[in-house]
TrEMBL record:
Site (Raises pKa of active site His): D144
Keywords, comma-separated and alphabetical: Purine biosynthesis, Transferase
GO cellular component: cytosol
PANTHER family: PHOSPHORIBOSYLGLYCINAMIDE FORMYLTRANSFERASE
Gene that encodes the chain: purN
Protein name, UniProt field: Phosphoribosylglycinamide formyltransferase
PROSITE patterns, per database record: GART (PS00373)
Pfam families attached to this UniProt entry: Formyl_trans_N
One Gene Ontology term from the biological process aspect of the record: 'de novo' IMP biosynthetic process
Residues given in the record as (6R)-10-formyltetrahydrofolate binding sites: K64, M89, R90, L91, V92, N106
Amino acid sequence: PKIAVFASGTGSNYNAIMHAIECKELHAEVALLVSDQPTAKVLEKAEKYETETFVFQPKDYPNKASFESAILQALQHAQVEWLVLAGYMRLVGKTLLEHYEGKIINIHPSLLPAFPGLDAIGQAFQAGVKVSGVTIHFVDEGMDTGSIIAQHPVLIEEGMSRDDLQTAIQKVEHSLYPKTIQQLIN
Ligand code: GRF
């Protein structure tokens, strides 16, 4: 199946997905990388893997419906079946939700419903919880509210810094996301 990855930032999860495809652990094709940030690091990674990209700036469109229509056209042209959000820093709107109902997933660096929204790792660290983790969930109109597909805990041990926690969470993300995508789409 053809998937599109949506990313606004570094793209380490995009990288992990591409790696899993190369290693034949994930049987899918990333037919499109969608980004709302023309300077995002993920675009350099997409170039290396020769993934087709759709890059846009929301400010060039009158509203969300109009940039999502442009995205939709690119997705349909590439015959994409699944939308995989990996650090896409926007809420998905009606246009994409209606066309890809039940086919949009996201990864979030906490055990939802704890710590939704921005900087979930910092939030968990500040709160002093002893367990956080990673959640993969279906996307709905809310912020990190869709139904949960998979979760994996990460222990926050004595003396761990915020950066240590981030490293531990990312390590889990990079194995859990490809694995879960594989289970879901095939
Ligand atoms: C990840 O921590 C993911 O959980 C969150 O955004 C981050 C993206 O990181 N939604 P990267 O761009 O894949 O490195």
